[in-house]
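Weekly sync, protein design subgroup
Attendees: M.S., D.O., the rotation student, P.L. (late)

Item 1: inverse folding check
M.S. brought a backbone from last month's batch and wanted to see whether the design step gives back something sensible before we order anything. D.O. pointed out we never logged the input encoding, so this time it goes straight into the notes. C-alpha cells as presented (203 positions):
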C-alpha cells in the first residue's frame, strides 16, 4: 500500500514538474518574442523618422537653392521667392510666391504659384505614424499655417518680410522612445540633427 502511495506521489510530482517546466519555457519564449518585437518596432519607427526627415530637409534645401538660382520669369514678373506652407503636422506645400498685389509680402494662398514643371503647389504628405512639430519657446506644437519664404538671396523670411528662424521636429506618434530628428533653419543655413528634448543637436 505504501509503495502504491509513493508511486502515485512520484507520478503527481513528475507530471506537475513537467507542467511547471513547460510553463517557464513558454513564458521565456514569449518574453524573448515580445522583446524582439519591441526592439524591431523602435528600429522601424526610427528608420521612418530618418527617412522622412531627410525628405523634408531635401525639400527645404531645394526651395532655398531655387530661390537663389531661378532667374527672371516672364510669365511671373512678380516672383518674390519660394516657400513652404505647413497645413498641419502631416501635410505641407511647396510653391513659388507670386506677389499679385505687389506689396513685396506673402499675402496668403492666393499668391502661391506652382513650382516650375508643376500644375499646382506641390503637396507633400508624411506617414500617419509620424508628425512634424515646430519649436515655439520651450514647447513643440502643430506647425499649422506656418509659412517660410526664401527670398532671392536665400534668406528665410516670415510672410511679413521679417527674418525667420525655425526648428522643426519629426517624431513618431506610436513610439515615444524612438529617437526624434530635427531641422534647424537659420539665416544662411539649414541643418539636420537629433532632438534632445530641448534643442536640435546639429550633425
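Designed sequence read out in the meeting:
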Amino acid at each position: 500500500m505504501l509503495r502504491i502511495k509513493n508511486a502515485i506521489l512520484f507520478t503527481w510530482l513528475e507530471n506537475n514538474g513537467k507542467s511547471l517546466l513547460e510553463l517557464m519555457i513558454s513564458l521565456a519564449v514569449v518574453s524573448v518574442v515580445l522583446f524582439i518585437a519591441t526592439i524591431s518596432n523602435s528600429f522601424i519607427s526610427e528608420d521612418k523618422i530618418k527617412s522622412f526627415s531627410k525628405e523634408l530637409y531635401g525639400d527645404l534645401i531645394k526651395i532655398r537653392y531655387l530661390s537663389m538660382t531661378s532667374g527672371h520669369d516672364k510669365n511671373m514678373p512678380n516672383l518674390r521667392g519660394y516657400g513652404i506652407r505647413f497645413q498641419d503636422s502631416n501635410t505641407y506645400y511647396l510653391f513659388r510666391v507670386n506677389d499679385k498685389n505687389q506689396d513685396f509680402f506673402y499675402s496668403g494662398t492666393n499668391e502661391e504659384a506652382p513650382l516650375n514643371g508643376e500644375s499646382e503647389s506641390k503637396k507633400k504628405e508624411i506617414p500617419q505614424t509620424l508628425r512634424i512639430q515646430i519649436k515655439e519657446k520651450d514647447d513643440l506644437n502643430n506647425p499649422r499655417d506656418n509659412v517660410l519664404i526664401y527670398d532671392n538671396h536665400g534668406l528665410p523670411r516670415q510672410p511679413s518680410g521679417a527674418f525667420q528662424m525655425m526648428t522643426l521636429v519629426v517624431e513618431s506618434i506610436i513610439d515615444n522612445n524612438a529617437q526624434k530628428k530635427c531641422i534647424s533653419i537659420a539665416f544662411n543655413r539649414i541643418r539636420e540633427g537629433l532632438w534632445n528634448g530641448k534643442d536640435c543637436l546639429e550633425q
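Discussion: The chain has a mean pLDDT of 85. DSSP finds one helix and twelve strands in the chain.
Action: P.L. to compare against the previous round before Friday.
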